[in-house]
Fold:
Amino acid sequence: MIMQKKGVFVWIAMALFAFVLTGCGGPSKPAADSKVVTVTFVNWVSAEEGTRDKMKDVIAQFEKENPNIKIDSKTVPVSDMMKQLTIMSTGGNPPDVAQVQGDGAITLASGGFLEPIDELLPKTYVVPQNILDASGLWKGKHYAIPWTPNENALWYNKKLMAQAGLDPNKPPKTMEELDQMVKQARERLPQDVVALQLDTTIRTIGLFDQWPFMLNFTKGVPPIDGNKVAVNSEGMLAYGEWIREQVKQGNTLPGKKYGEFRTMAAQNRLLFGFDGSYLHGVLKSLNPALTDKDIYETWGVTAIPAGANGKHYTADGNHLLVIFKASKNKEAAAKFAEYLANNTYSLTKYHLTAGFVPFGADASKRVPQFNESPLNKAFINDVLPSVISLPYGPNFAKASEILMSGVQEIITTDKPVPEILNKAQSKLEEIYK
Amino acid sequence: MWGRFKNTVLSTENGEDNSTKLAALLIAPALAVMGFIIVYPLLEALWLSFFNYQLTKPDEYAFAMAQNYGHMLKDDVFWIALKNTVFFTFATVFIGLLLGLLMALAIDHIAERFASIRGLILIPWVVPGIVVGYLFMYMFDVEVGIINYFLLKANIISKYLPWLMKEDLSMIAVIAAHVWNQAPFYMLMITAGLKAIPDDVKEAAYMEGASRWEEFCHVTLPYLKGILVISSLLMIIRNFNNFPIIWTMTGGGPVYATTTSVIYIYREAFEQYNLGYASAVGVVWVAILLIVSVVYVRSLQKDF
Structure:
């Protein structure tokens, strides 16, 4: 009996020893220097070759200027970002601050995972109201700190335009001009030149790409506006016929992600691109032989052609920074986010070199190099004022799937456009009822 | 100490050492852990399937009885996905099996000095799905795809086809990618089976005047029956779940032409955050897989 008891004690002692060794002895004590806080920053720019070193440099500088804040940068690929953040948030382990894109902020805000930034964001960062609202306004509060613009502009290839007998300094200003120029260019340019960079994938990015064209045909009336759905309107039918014609005529490649057209742009095989300001940097990374001078000589940037109402539109798809409700370091996280978006060091070392233009009202004055590039100037003056919001909200992903499936059905089948859009209309009415 | 533990804990009341009890006790911890990591998520998914649970609509979280299952019945995308899954699974398994059988028969008679070919043929099997997906995505590309190039050169097509953007062609493309990836697996299994057929049985058939085809039908094939059944059942289960190749090549499109159940569940859960409905679709999917698994396990126990 005594021997058995001794055995039990040995087992208990071993278990306790193992418990201590594995460090499961309860919550750890705070670090000796409790003034230093660590801000976890989940992002994809630290993973991508074109931005990795730039981001590392900016973070190092921030830590140098703010010795009481350490940044723990965790990289997640852009395609996995929302999935990872959702899993982390529902698992009770969200980061302090994260990089998201387009609908990301409102989707996370609608799930109750984010902290409003209205009070947190230092007043030194002044962002145009249309940008601030389009990116993160949810139920009367703002949840996103706009970091870098990601709106599409029209990138027109001046060399190919000249080759096609078009005036390289007169890009299309309206949809009619665009169609006319594409027709002329297709007759005169080699077969391997792709006329239009159009993303028709079933993705939220697909809708982001197509939204300005839809609005061009609907005279600016959004096909989805709040709970109002009008995807079978006359304007949308005209849009459907237009996109079908673009594929039928071989003006664009169906089902391609818009990033897949960039290789063609770098090879001088794309006539009209619809892409972000950072295409400049992407072209250089795809074709290292390209210099800034080459790019300025080849490419011009302006707003996406307007529809019948004469207004230019581009959909909001900004890179944003969000702060999580569960963060214990919200002040430090906000300080870091503001530094990334607005500090002169960050603007110079990240925005400028990666090909992004700034949002901050006074940024171009502080960093005059932004005005040296004609492409940047066009983005700031022509493109950013045309930003409009997408129907972000809890149903946005489903709505994108339905709408872009309809677009794919239009471009891959011969079914009548009204039949396809009526089907999409009833599906959307079901989710927005 | 072990002896004392064995005597006190594992012996039966009458002192008899019970090896069954010992075995049960030893595997109990592993079973408990596996039960937790396998059964718990299944039960959790079943539980969630009865809730209106969409992460982007936390205010609408509520017990919804069988609402998700009711919605599934009238959800045309669910039925399209299920139909695609069944077609895709059986097509890949049937073609893969046939190709694997032909390859195995071909290399079974290969000279010893060319034996390394067997290793080379196995390469597609070890290539990760995501790589296979990208490889075939570019091979079937409408602009630079090598498939279009060869078909055009051979005068089979008159212009490049948008393989991944035509409803009928896209399914062919994803099936081709899977067959390329999986045929070596069947070949490996069948080759092992061929090696197990006694030479004297074959020789006896030939001595009785059987042709090569008759020998194959009446000797080789019956010997391979067990392997064919088990390997195809295994691959039915695997392809029912297959995600990376289709997702990489087509993302389930065009429209819903290559959307299988697993892709539909992924979209509902991780793009639309509709966890309740995704769980309900998942439960139905698991139920179908369980039926196939039962058939598989029974086949394993059967003496072919």
Summary: Chain B has 14 helices and two strands. Chain B has two domains: 2-39, 72-301. Residues 2-39 of chain B form one domain.
